[in-house]
What we know:
mainly beta, 510 residues
Amino acid sequence: MNGKSIISAVFALLLVLPGCRREVLSNPSPDAPTLEIAIQFPYVPATKAGELAATALENKIHSLAIWVFRSEDHTPVGEPLILTDESRFPPSGGIGRYQFNVDWNFVNVHPDVDVFVLANAASIGCTLDAASNYDAVSTASFGYVSDEDDCFGTHAYTTTVDPGKGLPMSGMKTHVKVYGSAPRMKVDPVTLVRAVSRLRMVLCRTATDDIAQEDEVSVSGITFYKDQIPLREFVFTEGTTGIVPGDYTDDFSFPGPAEIKRNPVPEDLIYVNQDPDAYQQMLDQACAAGKLTDLGYVYLRESDKRIFGRVDYTINGKVRSREFAMSAPGDFARNHTWTLFAYFMSGRNLQISLVAAPWSKGDYHVDFSGQAVNVTKKFRMDERTCEIPKNEDGSIKYSADGYIDVKLIPGTTAKGTLTITTPVGGTLMITPLGAASLFSVTQQATIAPENHGGEITIEITNNPETDIDFSELPESETTLTLSFSVSVLGREVNVNSEAIDNDYKYRFHL
């Protein structure tokens, strides 16, 4: 074989040797590049001012689908995730992480991406799957098909949440910047919100002790006018609403109650700018006390219109009606709730109070930064503040069980640092394990990347207030290790794997 043939043969061999190609992404090695999405799941009953608490069924996640496409040419990024196994979802308020395998071209180019997230697809009969392309996903819609098939519409009212399907929740964001470097890259948050809205209707009348003067009052129905609820809406939207252009529904009505409860002071139930969640609780209490008639919840498609309607009622045999209207278009956008309170005051007058407010933030963050735990530098001790055991060659000396046995220096505060940038506003919890009473340890710190890039200093000293004579205790009872967790949205998540480097596991000695 001549020299040229030998070179050709060697080159051909190199092409098939492991490590010479970067393309096996179905079972990636730890260094294979990925795009990771962390989703903050619902937490009940967390509320904020201006929002309403959702029920557990309204927050329940039964399925989750995530699609990522390149913004420029709409080609898929990795395999879409279609998850129905609830064991893959964290408990209430937890964080779930989902990875998309990407190739090295993606790493080098860092293209903008479009992200689509859908929870509870079965609740709207959505058939998108892993094979769905960009056009199918971005234009997916739900709503009226026929009078018998009118998803969250006006022909067959949805008055309860299907316990097996939940409510539809979606989120999308286009032209999202990719940042970070291999093997893990990130994008900005996407928000997951309910794709429908909620209506509640309640009624009462003034109580009186004078039976002879009591009027006969009844409500025959509540009607909403035509051309207000669209026949269909898009599953995904970046706008306030996502209405499919086309027709709207005809008039639709709800029957009145068989009885209107009596209340000595109906005006006390008028909304007067209190916290919306507190207002709903007040209505619930009035219903439980038999002082308010509740027609329940109805879940409807959103609207981009200003909603008008009327209440039809009868007083002493005379049929009457009173119209009502929302304040502005968009008050009944997706993820909003609207309360109609109709009440009869003395003098036979029907009054109507309308309240429109955002639903509780079922805005569950699909996040690479805001909610995911991101430790950029793991915990390391400052060797200038403590004694680190060393071998003769200057390398760190490890114990038989793999720890670095740190000795505290009398009169000196031992200091260690780690850098954690998210979840912003969360709390890093440091739990001392072992002889905790003999030590004084920094036990919590706020996660604030704007302060020193998120660096947190942890101090360890002996506890000067302890009255234990540890000089006579065995060494195993005078040592301390640290455990790390993050508290966010009322839940605590163990982050030892993120915060502790296996090559730098410290055990502290007095």
